[in-house]
Design goal:
483 residues; globular; 13-stranded antiparallel sheet; two-stranded antiparallel sheet
Length: 483
C-alpha cells in the first residue's frame, strides 16, 4: 500500500441536519395548539357560567396533554399511537398464528400484519423476485452487495468511496421514479458452508484418525463464527412511473420493464463506486432472508443445507406476538430502535463503526432513503424558510427571544437550499436498528449494548413503543417499506 503524502485528499468531516422541532405557531404543533385552545375555551366557559373552579381539572388535563412530555414526545403525540394500539389489541391483531392447514393465496409472501398484502412477481428476463405492494403502489427489487472493510482503508480511499457513494444517492434522486432506497446490513451466524465446501473439495478422506478428527472439527467450528451481509433495495413508485409503465406495455410486465431500467442504472452506479453487487435476489434468496429474520435459530442450518427453506410461500413466521415494547417471533425476541438524532457536530464518515462493528449481538441496521424530486424539495425548503421567518417575527413581536436550536435549524434549511442550488439531491433518511435475542433478558442486555454503541457513534436511539411489528418489517426485512 503506498504511503500517504500531503497531496492525498484528507477525510472531510460531515454534519447532519437536525430533526426539525418547528411547530405551526410559536413552536407549538397542531395538536398542542388544539389542546391550548380547548383549555382557554373551557376557562372562558367557566367564567361565563360562574363555575371557574370546577373547570380547573379539565383545564389541567388539556394543559398536561399539550406540554407534559414522556419518552421524548408530548402526551398528546402519544394519543394516536395509543389509540391505534388499542384498536389493534381489541381486534386481535397483536397475535399471529399461521393456519398451516389452509394454504395462502398464490403469489403472497405469507407475512403477518399489513405486510400480508405483499405479492411476489418473478421477472422472466432476470429471474429476480420483485415485491409488489398494491396499497403503497410500489415494486421492489433487492441486490446483495459485497464491499471491503471501510475502517481498514486509508483516509484517501475512504474519501474517494464516500464521494462515490454520494453519486449513487444522487443517481437515486435524479431518477424521479424511485419511491425509496434501503441499505440493510445484518449480522448472521456463520453457517460454515464455505469451510465445509473447502473441506469437500480439498480434504483427504482416508478414514484415518486425523482425517476423521479434522472433519468433526470443521463440522463444529463453522457455526461458531459471525459474518455481515449487506443488501440494497430499490422501490419503484408505480404512480410516478405510470406513463413509462403504460409505454412499456402496462401491467406487471410494464412495471417490471421500467424497474429493470432502474436496476441497470443502480448497478452501474454501484460498480462505479467500487462496490461489488451480486445478482438480483431470486425468490429463494429472499425467502432465506425472511425466514432468517423471523427464525434466526435455523438460519445457519438453512444456508448450510442448500435448497431447504427457499420457498417464499412458506418463508413467513409460524407465530408472532407483539407487545408494547418488543416483538416475539418463532425462535427469537426482537426490539426495534429508531435513530432519532444523527450527529449534531462534525464527524468523519466512519462514525457508525461502534454501532456496526458491535460483536456478539444479533442485529440488523437499515437506512431508508426517500428521494425527493428537485421541484418538490425546492418547494418544501421555501415553505420551511417562510415558516421560520414568520415564527421569528411573531416571537419578536411578543418579546420572546430566539434560542440556539431554532437558529441552527434555520441554518440547516439555508444549507439544504445551497446544496440543492449547487445540483445536489435531497433525501430523507430514516435509521432503524432491529435487535434479536433468544430470551427477554438477553434482549434487554443487547438493546442496552446497542444504545451504548449508538452514543459512542454520536447518535441517539429511541425504542419504537407501540410500533414494533411495523418497525420490524421496515428495519429487519429488505422490502424498502416505510414506517
Amino acid at each position: 500500500m503506498p504511503a500517504s503524502t500531503d497531496s492525498d485528499p484528507a477525510l472531510t468531516p460531515v454534519k447532519f441536519s437536525r430533526l426539525t422541532r418547528r411547530g405551526v405557531l410559536l413552536g407549538l404543533s397542531g395538536p398542542q395548539l388544539l389542546m391550548a385552545s380547548l383549555a382557554s375555551g373551557t376557562l372562558t366557559l367557566g367564567l361565563y357560567v360562574g363555575a371557574v373552579v370546577l373547570t380547573f381539572p379539565v383545564i389541567g388535563v388539556f394543559v398536561a396533554l399539550a406540554f407534559v412530555g414522556a419518552g421524548g414526545r408530548k402526551l398528546i403525540e402519544w394519543v394516536p399511537i395509543g389509540a391505534r394500539w388499542l384498536w389493534r389489541s381489541s381486534g386481535g391483531q397483536l397475535l399471529y398464528r399461521r393456519r398451516i392447514a389452509k394454504p395462502r393465496p398464490a403469489g403472497t409472501l405469507a407475512l403477518p400484519g399489513d405486510a400480508a398484502r405483499l405479492r411476489q412477481w418473478v421477472d422472466p428476463e432476470t429471474d429476480a423476485v420483485m415485491v409488489h405492494d398494491p396499497h403503497a403502489a410500489t415494486l421492489t427489487a433487492i441486490v446483495g452487495v459485497a464491499h471491503p472493510a471501510f475502517v481498514l482503508l486509508d483516509p484517501a480511499e475512504q474519501e474517494r468511496r464516500v464521494v462515490s457513494w454520494g453519486r449513487v444517492l444522487a443517481t437515486a434522486c435524479r431518477s424521479g421514479r424511485l419511491a425509496s432506497l434501503q441499505v440493510m446490513e445484518r449480522t448472521l451466524p456463520e453457517s460454515g458452508k464455505g469451510l465445509a465446501d473447502w473441506w469437500e473439495a480439498h480434504g483427504t478422506r482416508t478414514g484415518s484418525w486425523a482425517s476423521t478428527t479434522y472433519a468433526e472439527l470443521v463440522d463444529r467450528a463453522g457455526p461458531a463464527g459471525e459474518r455481515h451481509a449487506s443488501t440494497i433495495s430499490i422501490s419503484l413508485d408505480l404512480k410516478t412511473a405510470g406513463r413509462a409503465i403504460r409505454a412499456a406495455g402496462g401491467g406487471n410486465r410494464g412495471a417490471a420493464a421500467v424497474l429493470r431500467q432502474e436496476m441497470a442504472t443502480v448497478l452501474a452506479a454501484l460498480r462505479s463506486a467500487d462496490l461489488s453487487p451480486t445478482e438480483w435476489l431470486t425468490p429463494g434468496d429472499l425467502a432465506l432472508i425472511l425466514r432468517s429474520a423471523y427464525d434466526p435459530a435455523v438460519a445457519g442450518a438453512l444456508e448450510r443445507h442448500g435448497g431447504i427453506g427457499r420457498d417464499l410461500a412458506t418463508a413467513g413466521p409460524v407465530a408472532v406476538c407483539e407487545s408494547w415494547g418488543s416483538l416475539r417471533s418463532d425462535s427469537a425476541h426482537h426490539c426495534v430502535l429508531w435513530v432519532s438524532e444523527w450527529p449534531r457536530s462534525l464527524v468523519f464518515p466512519g462514525f457508525l463503526a461502534p454501532l456496526l462493528l458491535s460483536s456478539g449481538i444479533r442485529r440488523t441496521f437499515s437506512l431508508l432513503y426517500t428521494p425527493m424530486r428537485t421541484d418538490r424539495a425546492a418547494r418544501d425548503i421555501r415553505k420551511k424558510k417562510t415558516e421560520y421567518i414568520s415564527d421569528a417575527a411573531q416571537r419578536q413581536k411578543i418579546g420572546q427571544i430566539e434560542d440556539a436550536q431554532q437558529t441552527a435549524e434555520y441554518h440547516d434549511v439555508l444549507q439544504q437550499e445551497a446544496d440543492l442550488t449547487a445540483g445536489h439531491g435531497v433525501l430523507r433518511c430514516t435509521g432503524l436498528v432491529a435487535v434479536s435475542a433468544t430470551d427477554p433478558d438477553e434482549l434487554e442486555r443487547a438493546v442496552a449494548a446497542i444504545e451504548q454503541a449508538a452514543i459512542q457513534a454520536s447518535c441517539e436511539t429511541r425504542r419504537l413503543w407501540g410500533q414494533q411489528a411495523q418497525g420490524f418489517c421496515a428495519g429487519a426485512l429488505p422490502l424498502a417499506r416505510g414506517i
